[in-house]
Write a structure and sequence with these properties.
Blueprint: H1 10-19, H2 23-28, H3 30-39, H4 41-57, H5 65-72, E1 83-85, H6 102-112, H7 131-140, E2 146-150, H8 153-164, E3 169-173, E4 179-181, E5 184-185, H9 186-192, E6 196-200, H10 208-214, E7 219-225, H11 241-244, E8 251-256, H12 272-277, E9 282-286, E10 297-301, H13 305-314, H14 317-321, H15 326-337, H16 342-348, H17 351-366, E11 373-380, E12 390-399, H18 402-407, E13 412-414, E14 416-418, E15 421-425, H19 434-452
Parallel strand pairs: 1-13, 3-6, 3-7, 7-8, 8-9
Antiparallel strand pairs: 2-10, 4-5, 9-10, 11-12, 12-15, 14-15
Helix pairs in contact: 3-4, 4-5, 6-15, 7-15, 8-9, 8-13, 17-19
Length: 453
């Protein structure tokens, strides 16, 4: 007689199949119906079918189908999962770089509905798109007289090249022809926009005379690119913006990380206010790095000629293809006008406070049998910002096997593995999430104990 996984014979298996609730019955269950309203019928129905099949295989009891459906359903309709960033990298590209502030998230909720993104409520007519965000950007950088926003930093530079340098030359140092990630390179970006590159200097040393000798009738502008993801040391030299600004052609500076004003911990990182003050006509930067906002490309023009360049760029046909949506504009404005961003708070976090958090968490977990200790650590900015800068931090130290289990847990926790240990660096972890971090570590520990038993 054929046996089934449930241990029942043919007649028993048939009886089990008869007890499996129909799809419409499961969908009518209050908890399942509520999930349908949140996730959509198709997604919920897939979970119902999968649970019914599990019951037919004998993997679960027919009476457990509804519970299995609810277990299989995601919390939201997106497959994205929140991750606690315990890597010690403040702007982790694989985690979406800058986490948005609470005020920026609130702004997203407003923008998600119908809103006055391109409407003047006073006149009832069409308004300037994203006017509030642009005004906030100019307020944050008083040295700028005009601003424009694109969908990312690379787009800002490409749009500037497409507007100002098609068929003409951009003078740039060989030491600044960087690869910006995932195989994309600045020279390829600029030539794709229709410009020609006039490379000057060498990889490690470029002088003012190199730029001056290269300038001619075909020069559209001088480009200075901050090498924001690497450092060249030793026998090196470059030319600061204040000297390049005096060569008689527009100076465009791509500062990369989006720092708008100087920061004491990052003395080598260029900022928009300082570069404009040194004479740059146009500054391009990213919004989702040190600024701590959404992914966006920022273009800031100096008074006079720089503002005129921004106006030309804003009216270029490709500006439409590279424009940002209402969600980005709302989050950017709130980032600029609101309180300190999570990125800024993590950057400014004091070492003593980080150590106190690590010691408190370690003591609490150790009291529950977790093999953990607190230790000093080094964190970095990441995300193409402040290369070579390390920030003293504190971390929880766990056995290496915790790394994968935490990564696959709920919530997911991403740490880093060093010398056979799992480190959970606290600099990029919101203090309000410490309890969640501890719960995740404890859950891994208890699951391991249960498996050993």
């Amino acid at each position: 007689m054929t046996e089934f996984a449930s241990g029942r014979g043919v007649d028993g298996a048939a009886d089990v199949r008869r007890r499996i609730p129909r799809t419409d019955v499961v969908l009518a269950e209050p908890a399942v119906a509520a999930a349908t309203g949140r996730l959509g019928r198709d997604l919920v129905k897939q979970a119902v079918v999968a649970a019914q099949q599990a019951a037919r295989r004998g993997a679960i009891e027919p009476d457990d189908v509804v519970d299995e459906v609810l277990r299989r359903l995601p919390r939201t309709a997106t497959r994205l999962r929140p991750v606690l960033n315990a890597t010690g990298v403040l702007l982790h590209t694989n985690l979406g770089r800058a986490p948005l502030s609470a005020s920026a998230r609130e702004a997203l909720a407003i923008a998600a509905g119908t809103c006055d993104v391109e409407l003047d409520l006073g006149t009832g007519g069409r308004g300037r798109r994203g006017a509030a965000a642009l005004d906030a950007l100019l307020s944050a950088v008083p040295a700028a007289a005009a601003a424009h926003v694109t969908n990312n930093g690379a787009a800002a530079l490409a749009l500037a090249a497409a507007t100002l340098a098609v068929g003409r030359e951009i003078v740039v140092s060989r030491g600044e022809l960087v690869e910006i990630g995932d195989g994309f390179r600045i020279p390829d970006l600029l030539t794709a926009a229709g410009a020609r590159l006039r490379e000057v200097g060498t990889t490690n040393r470029t002088h003012l005379r190199d730029y001056a000798d290269a300038i001619g009738e075909d020069t559209a502008f001088i480009l200075k690119v901050h090498p924001s993801n690497f450092v060249v040391t030793g026998f090196t030299s470059d030319v600061p913006p204040r000297e390049l600004a005096g060569l008689g052609v527009p100076l465009v500076c791509d500062i990369g990380s989006g720092l708008l004003a100087p920061h004491p911990l990052l003395p080598g990182e260029p900022d928009a206010a300082s570069v404009l003050a040194e004479g740059a006509a146009l500054v391009t930067a990213s919004g989702d790095k040190l600024l701590g906002g959404p992914q966006a490309g920022l273009l800031l023009g100096a008074p006079g000629a720089g503002a005129a360049l921004v106006d030309r760029i804003r009216r270029h046909p490709l500006a439409r293809a590279m424009r940002v949506d209402k969600l980005t504009l709302a989050a950017l404005e709130a980032t600029l006008r609101g309180p300190a961003t999570p990125t800024r708070e993590a950057l400014d976090a004091g070492v003593a406070g980080l150590r106190a958090r690590a010691e408190a968490l370690a003591a609490s977990l150790a009291a529950k049998g977790v093999p953990v200790e607190a230790a000093t650590s080094d964190s970095t900015v990441g995300g193409g910002g402040a290369p070579g800068v390390t920030l003293p931090s504190a971390a929880l130290v766990l056995p290496e096997h915790f790394a994968r289990a935490l990564r696959e847990g709920d919530p997911a926790v991403l740490g880093r593995v060093e010398r056979g240990r799992c480190l959970l660096d606290l600099r990029a972890v919101d203090p309000a999430a410490d309890a969640d971090l501890a719960a995740a570590v404890l859950a891994v520990h208890e699951a391991g104990r249960a498996g050993d038993a």
